[in-house]
Amino acid sequence: MSFPYERPRRLRRSERLRAMVRETTVSPAHLIYPLFVAPGSGVRREIASLPGCFHLSVDEVAREAEEVERLGIGGVILFGLPHAKDPLGSEGYADDGVVQLAVRAIRAACHELLVFTDVCLCEYTAHGHCGVIEGGEVQNDPTLALLAKMAVSHAKAGAHVVAPSDMMDGRVGAIREALDESGFESLPILAYAAKYASAFYGPFREAADSAPQFGDRRGYQMDPANVREALREVALDVEEGADMVMVKPALPYLDVIRAVAETSDRPVAAYNVSGEYAMVKAAAAKGWIDEDRMLREILTSIRRAGADVILTYHAKDFARKAV
To answer: Residue 177, Cβ neighbours under 10 Å: how many?
Structure first.
């Protein structure tokens, strides 16, 4: 049937009609909000490269989580800044570590909010890498026991989901085994399955004080040029026991999100990372963009690509407009 009988514009004539036939939707329930936990009390220190985001002490994190829950956001994910760092990142798996204390505080303050925890050593090690260093290189297998220990400590504190982000081979299996042996067989794992060695992480390195003191992470994070490798990583993590899988970053890797969503039977998360957020905030501060419209378009594109869940620093901004 040809023009004038086919007129797609008929279904675009009003907002109510557009909303009724909209193919992709985004709600606050689809979002996870990252939080950075710092030592001390009464700490609420804005992160310069992440406007609107803060280093928060445990008491302030609990108050922040209450607001996040009121906004209808699905969950938070916690990153920790320790009192002190050492070669093995020991505060990362201490029972009284900042993340462990924050999990307990949030669980006491909130009723429905899901608490995810990042499982990685980079924030806690003096060298800033995601694993044990021997001979000037990150050693895969010795790192696994420490990651498993960290995941169990988060589980004991009350985390709903643990999320290993280190990209060591076999870490999902090691964590799953340790959780099961410790009586947490029902605790889900969200695996950072396809985590790329990306330039978009810059502001996060400041926020988490996790920049490597030498070299870089290209020896264990993925090459940005590869997509078949991402599917292999996802398949391996699923085989080892991952309940959800993640692609990170999101916007430069929408094709990877789509490929993972089409080939995996696990829920797919995508991380709308710090550099993506910072660029929007910087352009908005200059008056160059309509921030609200751009934000909705960004989150819709990530969902449209196939993400079931989005980790994003924009979560509160979006939710305030949605409620």
So the answer is: 14
